[in-house]
Amino acid sequence: MTKNYYKVDTFQSRKALGYLIRRTANLIVPHAEALFADQEITFSQWVALVSLRDGLTNTCADIARHLGHDSGATTRLIDQLEARGLVVRTRSQEDRRVVKLSLTSEGRAVAKSLTPRILEFWNDVLNDFSSSEVTTLIELLTRLLGAIETELANEPQKARSAR
Amino acid sequence: MTKNYYKVDTFQSRKALGYLIRRTANLIVPHAEALFADQEITFSQWVALVSLRDGLTNTCADIARHLGHDSGATTRLIDQLEARGLVVRTRSQEDRRVVKLSLTSEGRAVAKSLTPRILEFWNDVLNDFSSSEVTTLIELLTRLLGAIETELANEPQKARSAR
DNA sequence: ACATAATAGCTGCCTAGGCAGATATTGTTT
DNA sequence: AAACAATATCTGCCTAGGCAGCTATTATGT
Which residue, A11, A55, B45, B146, is most buried by CB atoms nearer than 10 A? Predict the structure, then answer.
């Protein structure tokens, strides 16, 4: 148990997890978007497609949680995928508030065809990491994400995303 | 050497580093901003203040790189810190293109007074991690960040941030 | 010396996404 | 069953930050 890993007087931003994570995300996301610049969909849209295909999500609300976006942004993202014929909206019969999302065959094709771009980037980046290092990193990040989620849930001083 | 950690057919978004990092950042940053909601500065502004105080940065361009923002956004961020009397701009004499930034005593006070909020959050989140796990995570993330930076530099298909 | 390129900073413009409010539907209390 | 709360989606509005273009200054090549 690390009661106090960080202390005010020894704190350095270069070793701050928040700094490292934010900076990494700030480099990755625009680059990923750039990899998609010549495509008909954006990187975020691709992430949504893949999550639908893999059954990780199947409604707008799911996608909002998955991407960490708000529901308004998600509605608009789905609007575009629908307009391009990659996704179909169907009002659910069991619960008429929800709109079920499903991929069209073209959506499935687009999701698949773009996957190699992202994987190639990551495999390049991870070239100097051993396989066990990558596994460790993924495991620690997964736990960290879980810890943050519960911490934010416990401390409901402010309404959180996916409202 | 992990030549190919990720493969197209075994790829799952839940184990994707990009997903984990982006999602974590998407949870952390708004929460950090919320912690500052009652303050006169935002979280990003605080990060800039601290980086100036610690000598990690001392110009706009430095801060842009540190935050992963573009230079326009940084100009406006500094504008606000200057308007609030927390930072002073001084044209450099050695190189008259650059504007040196320095904290006022009030800026120093504000930077210091807000640090505990962030550290407390992180110490709560890290409660279930051993000290060595945190160290490992920081080390792996630092290397990952470095690897991404060099990867992006090698592949200059598109101009990168801090233009 | 002169042309060219690179760098620091600033400004206008635009978009992605956050926020709050509205509707429709379902669940829970009393 | 009436009231209230919660959830899913959608819409308008607004801001932070990305992008491109501009000037001033310095560095580099010829």
Answer: B45
Q: What is the pLDDT of residue B97?
A: 94
C-alpha triplet B44, B49, B54: angle, nearest 5°: 125
Write down how long chain A is: 163
Residue A130: what are its φ and ψ, rounded to 5°? -75, 160
Closest CA to A130 of B139, B145, B1: B1
- At A151, list the tokens: 């911490």
Near-strand D residues (CB closer than 7 A): A 26, 30, 59-62, 64, 71-72, 75-76, 78-79, 89, 95, 97-99, 163; B 42, 44, 68-73, 76-77, 95-97, 159, 161, 163
Strands B87-91 and B99-103 come out as antiparallel
Average pLDDT over residues A45-58: 94
For residues A126 and A136, give the distance between their C-alpha atoms in angstroms, rounded to a whole number.
13
Separation between Cα atoms, residue B30 and residue B21, nearest integer Å: 14
CA dist., res. B12 & res. A139, Å (int): 14
DSSP string, B87-107: EEEEE-SSSTT-EEEEE-HHH
Report pLDDT digits (tens) over A36-46. Answer: 888 889 999 99
Q: How confident is the model at residue A157 (pLDDT cuts 50, 70, 90)?
A: very low
User: Locate tokens 């608009």: which residue?
Assistant: A76
Q: Which run of H or of E encompasses A101?
A: strand A99-103
Chain B: closest CA distance from residue A58 (Å): 15
Q: What's residue B1's pLDDT? A: 61
The fraction of chain A above a pLDDT of 70, given in percent, is 92
In this model, does residue A1 exceed pLDDT 70?
no
Specify the pTM.
0.87
Distance CA B93, CA B47 (A): 27
Would you call B5 and A122 a contact, using CB atoms and an 8 Å cutoff? Answer: yes
